[in-house]
Design brief:
Blueprint: H1 7-23, H2 37-46, H3 54-73, E1 77-82, H4 90-96, E2 100-107, H5 110-123, E3 132-133, E4 151-156, H6 166-180, E5 185-191, H7 196-203, H8 209-225, E6 234-241, E7 246-253, E8 257-261, E9 264-268, E10 273-280, H9 284-292, E11 296-303, E12 309-316
Parallel strand pairs: 1-2, 1-4, 2-3, 4-5
Antiparallel strand pairs: 5-12, 6-7, 7-10, 8-9, 11-12
Helix pairs in contact: 2-8, 3-4
Bound molecules: N,N,N-trimethyl-histidine (AVJ).
């Protein structure tokens, strides 16, 4: 069975996602669709914004605690990163480990992964790098041939897990528990719940980059599905909700919208919105409970002075 999707498959999936969003209550559409080439560039820009604290804060936590994190992980560990992207956070970690067995970067984009890996060889000296093209939100397997190692560490920085539903996060943690084995460890970055005074500007910056990122979904759909959605007719909104604590991004219709998709006409009334992303905000205790249900035991935690973000180390409990 082929696991590679063709461009036509992707177009059909996006069209189905849009029709589902138009016809179902809540009008939700997977945030995965935000990350086309332009969307990924805009997200990189977001990480540089003064009001978007998570990336900078997490990098600071790693920089300030690298020696103690490396010590807690130990030697001869195979590092498996979920959604490796540019591996920006992993290179310092791998270099801080006294002796590691190898690095398995996993990314959904084959092109991006190939490019990133070619830049890594010089930065990582002789460390074996075994890239894997896979969608880590579905069940995936590790490459068949791996260098000898005494333990496996799952590495999942960036609070990317926050984009998954509770059930999605649960099944990912369970799957990794199986994959990483008895001696398995999991090092994960999570964004902590905090005042909406801090959260809202992080997702609705004065520069308008997050608004452009959100609206780019419509640009993407217009191009991919040959539609004529009026992009200016949708306003970017970041909303804070509790139970569970989260930020939701919406694209709100500022006037009644009629959309024709594959010959069918749908309407979105003024004030209704596409729900384009959920970003869960956790407490350390709450996340530890979620992970425990998937077999993971919290061993260490590192945070910043304002407790905005946390890096947690879990062990596969026996
Ligand atoms: C990539 C999921 C970590 O939720 O903070 C940033 C995505 N969306 N601004 C996040 C995002 C809007 C980001 N993650």
């Amino acid at each position: 069975m082929s696991t590679t999707k063709t461009a036509t498959d992707t177009t059909t999936d996006l069209q189905q996602a849009l029709v589902d969003a138009l016809t179902q209550p809540g009008h939700g559409i997977s945030s995965a669709w935000l990350y086309d080439q332009r969307g990924s560039e805009l997200f990189e820009e977001i990480t540089e914004l003064p009001s978007y604290y998570p990336t900078r804060t997490e990098i600071g936590i790693f920089a300030d605690n690298l020696a103690s994190i490396a010590k807690a992980i130990g030697n001869d560990c195979l590092v498996v990163e979920l959604g490796s992207g540019s591996s920006r956070k992993t290179v310092p970690l791998l270099n801080a480990l006294d002796r590691s067995a190898g690095y398995v970067p996993i990314d959904i984009s084959a092109d991006y992964l190939r490019e990133a890996v070619s830049g890594l060889t010089t930065k990582l000296k002789d460390l074996p790098v075994i890239p894997l093209v896979a969608d880590f939100t579905t069940a995936f397997s590790l490459p068949p041939s791996l260098p000898a190692h005494s333990s496996r560490l799952g590495f999942f920085p960036g609070s990317t897990i926050g984009n998954l539903t509770a059930a999605g996060a649960q099944s990912l943690l369970q799957h990794c528990h199986t994959l990483l084995g008895q001696e398995g460890m999991f090092l994960i970055g999570i964004d902590l719940d905090k005042s909406p005074d801090v959260l809202i500007p992080a997702y609705d910056d004065p520069e308008g980059v997050t608004a452009a990122f959100n609206r780019n979904l419509l640009v993407h759909m217009n191009r991919e599905l040959e539609l004529a959605i009026d992009i200016e007719a949708f306003a970017h909104e970041a909303r804070y909700y509790t139970d569970p604590a989260r930020i939701e991004m919406h694209l709100v219709a500022v006037a009644d919208q009629t959309l024709t998709v594959a010959g069918q006409t749908y309407t979105l009334a003024k004030g209704e919105s596409f729900h384009t992303e959920t970003s869960h905000k956790y407490t350390v205790e709450g996340f530890a409970q979620l992970a425990k249900r998937a077999g993971w035991q919290l061993r260490r935690e590192w945070s910043d002075s304002e407790q905005r973000f946390a890096v947690l180390l879990f062990d596969a409990s026996k």
